Amino acid sequence: MTRYRVAIVGTGSIANHHLQALNELKERAEVVAAVDVLRERVEEFSKKHAIPHFYTDITEMLERERPDLVQIATPPDTHYPLIIQALQAGASVLCEKPLCTSLAELDHILAVEQQTGKYCSSVFQWRFGTGGQLLKHLIQTEGLGRPLVGICQTTWFRNHAYYEVPWRGKWSTEGGGPTMGHGIHAMDLFLWLLGDWQEVSSMTSTLDRNIEVEDVSLAMVRFKNRTLGSIVNSVLSPREETYLRFDFQRASVELTTLYGYTNKHWRFSQPGSDQDAAIQQLWQLTQDQPASHATQIAQLLDSLDHGAEPLASTATVRPTIEFITGIYKSAATGQIVQQGSIVAGDPFYNHVSGQLAPRT
User: Fold this and answer.
1) pLDDT tens digits, residue range 322-333?
2) Pick from 34, 81, 230, 352: CA 20 to 30 A from residue 43's CA?
3) Would 142 be classed as within a structural domain?
4) DSSP secondary structure string for all residues of 163-217
């Protein structure tokens, strides 16, 4: 088993989740460097966590340290150029969501992966918990019958002070509101479980926060397997909750949580008049792997061991970014958006807002 050299780029609050996860996996990974544009912050972070080297320039770090894996924990607008630079330097990448703010950028990341033979993964840790993994298996095998109806709600609360951070609430730097920055984890799990989506119709609005982007979005989605779903993303909800529900022909499965989940957050139900012990037996959560950075990074290291594509690679998360782009396009145009319809030449291909010019 190889022990991988890891560098963390960005030492704000989310970097602590990465470091905690890597500490749990210290037999397999060694943090050799940290990078941040603020020297005082990266120096303090490195000293606190006994990281041997710190830098304010990623180019210098990549040249000197030659890490196997770069974990990016910076604001959204910086993700894309940092991913490209790390891949071209010969490192694999794990990046916080979203990987980028356009399908054009995402497709360029895919092209660079092919050129370098390295992979980029998105932090979509909700795919990796025991409950999500079991439900994915049951959907693939139709153990509960066909999925018929789905609900996905991210109803959180972010006050006005939250948006005083300069990069938040702007299309150019955050890349969207709760649709892009908050509900993305629940939506990714929802979409990953139910499979290819076919079409989406949506509304977005900025109802109460003084920001450029939306503070609430509502969407209806039809999947290719005919499942119908509803999605709500909000930062205006004082009682915070993340709720997903899947109604199958033979049972319902629900997840009620906030920022992550373990087995205790799931609920399984059958029709009161149609109980089936064999169906009940299918929902057996024998392990309890949480939906966490550590769980995802462990599987990412497994993929590095075997030279395999990771389970949340750029290619496999593209449908989620395309879906989010579809929500924004449908809300802006008042039209139903079909999967595969947002292509080069469409302004929404160049940025999820459909308003910004592509980067050069």
Assistant:
1) 999 999 999 999
2) 81
3) yes
4) GGSTTTT-TTTT-SSHHHHTTHHHHHHHHHHH--EEEEEEEEE--SS-SSS-SEE
